[in-house]
Design a protein that fits this description.
By secondary structure, the chain is mainly alpha-helical. The protein is built from six helices and no strands.
Length: 91
């Protein structure tokens, strides 16, 4: 049922499916899986919005910094550099 539901709603979006699978992995009971399948986001934008809403309040500043670095950089960033960048504060 999981594969069929995800295939039917994916509209050819592999990334959407990948995000839903990651979300479904957190379900502990079959009831939770069924409930999650019944309330899947329709678009990738809605999926990302749901993911961002799960970020803890105290971590949001780091997520904002991460996005700023990714958006405004003019060169590829490795994970180590990103990890250093998000803890760096400008005065």
């Amino acid at each position: 049922q999981i594969v069929q539901t995800l295939t039917n709603k994916a509209q050819g979006m592999f990334r959407w499916v990948e995000c839903q699978v990651e979300s479904l992995k957190k379900c502990r009971r079959p009831y939770d899986v069924k409930k999650a399948l019944g309330s899947l986001p329709k678009t990738l934008d809605e999926t990302y919005e749901r993911i961002l809403l799960t970020v803890e309040e105290e971590d949001r500043v780091y997520v904002a910094r991460l996005f700023a670095w990714v958006i405004f950089t003019d060169q590829p960033l490795c994970l180590d550099l990103l990890a250093e960048a998000i803890v760096f504060e400008l005065d």
